[in-house]
Amino acid sequence: MTTGVVYTETVVHAAPAEFVADAPYQLAIVTLDAGGRVTARITGERVKIGDKVELAESRGGVEFFRKIAG
Amino acid sequence: MGIGKTAFGAFPDRTLRSLAVEAGEKCMEDAGVNASQIEAFYLGNFAGPSFAGQNHLAPYIAGSLGLTGIPCTRFEAACASGGSAFFHAVSSVAAGLNDIVLVAGVEKMTSQTTPKVTEILAGAGDMAGEGRAGATFPALFAMIARRHMYQYGTTREHLAAVAVKNHENGAKNPLAHMRKVITMEQALAGKPVADPLTVYDCSLISDGAAAVLITPLERASEFTDQPVRILGIAQTSDYVALDAKADITTFWAVREAAEKAYKMARVSPRDIEFAEVHDCFTIAEIVATEDLGFVKKGEGGPYALEGHTRLRCERPVNASGGLKAKGHPVGATGVGQICDVVLQIRGEAGELQLDRHSLGLAQNLGGSGATAVVTVMGSI
Questions:
Q1: What is the pLDDT of residues B128-161, one digit of tens each?
Q2: How does pLDDT run across B77-94, given as a tens digit for each residue?
Q3: Contact call for A22 and B134, based on CB within 8 A
Q4: Between chain A and chain B, how many beta carbons pairs sit less than 8 Å apart?
Q5: What are the structural domains, with CATH classification, of chain B?
Q6: Mapped to the 3 state alphabet, what secondary structure does chain B carry?
Q7: pTM of the model
């Protein structure tokens, strides 16, 4: 399982043309436990810096992370 | 040295070429130079092909200025396109290749819808990574702001103080896009764009052009009674993708460019009397004041809120209104900043004229920090 910690995040309200239908959506840079960082979408509950997250799915080349409960 | 600028704003009836030509002609007139004397043309433009469907822009614009038979080249470095064109023009003069060089920057952005503009601007980031995930430019700077808040306690009020100050200055700038004063309450209650940034934290989508003529110091007196000297200049780079940087609360390219430019100019940050910095977003001005060495890391927010960067205070930052109020026609911005510093040094900044104006700095940033150009200028 790919897991990591939220390094920073934002909720995008004004989206580029391609993603207008998705807005508002949360984006985060996740520091992966295995090393390195990735810019990903957050699915489900909103996250904040320091939250632990896990990879929920990859869709259209984009990784979606979700908060790990507790 | 000569300067020329169009007003920045939304000009539905103007073409990219007409804006660039207006700035170029004003600049040539300012220096009393005619087209036959110009030896090279450097153009800063980010996305003319995307915004206006026109490529091969440098000779396209040069031809309309009556410039043919000389090297004409377009520079693209996202929002630092203008600064990059200027840096390379200065390099060519310093190398002795050319004596009289025209630099222009132009962007025509308002002919597209905001989502389309957002998409084109996102192309200055890493489209295969952050772009595919849905990162806009406001989103990248929002993530910088969030991390800066987390690490240094920067607040929404700190960001809003930058917007309030720059609008206050811009209201006095006859060439500014947004000549409207805003209150702290308004700035804090803006419509969200990418949390924690609101519309009041974002610079404007604008049309506009700016131009500068440069020449070796020993020939400057042929063109002006008040030459402005380029004391130090540097362009540096960093990774394009935000997630590739170790610490996103610092623009490392800005720090390195500033160090090099200060060294070349033989000055230290505390000698700089005023600065035009790249406030594409309010957080960027706060980070810039830190990375340029005006304050310690993390102190940029309180420094802005306490008013030290306001007109005629300790170190005025963006006396022109900055990108925030003046407008941000991307390719024109870096050249426009040079024009604004020159105006101050010459003492021609009108209502915005500063009392200490003999040593100024311009800082132009591309993308989320992948290109930085820092220029230190002074009176002779």
A1: 889 999 999 999 999 999 999 999 999 999 999 9
A2: 999 999 999 999 999 999
A3: yes
A4: 94
A5: 2-112+207-222 (3.40.47.10), 120-202+228-379 (3.40.47.10)
A6: CEEEECCCECCCCCCHHHHHHHHHHHHHHHHCCCHHHCCEEEEECCCHHHHHCCCCHHHHHHHHCCCCCCCEEEECECECHHHHHHHHHHHHHHCCCCCCEEEEEEEECCCCCHHHHHHHHHCCCCHHHHHCCCCCHHHHHHHHHHHHHHHHCCCHHHHHHHHHHHHHHHCCCCCCCCCCCCCHHHHHCCCEEECCEEHHHECCCCEEEEEEEECCHHHHHHCCCCCEEEEEEEEEECCCCHHHCCCCCCCHHHHHHHHHHHHHHCCCHHHCCEEECCCCEHHHHHHHHHHCCCCCCCCHHHHHHCCCCCCCCCCCECCCCHHHHHCCCHHHHHHHHHHHHHHHHHCCCHHHCCCCCCEEEEEEEECCCCEEEEEEEEEC
A7: 0.97
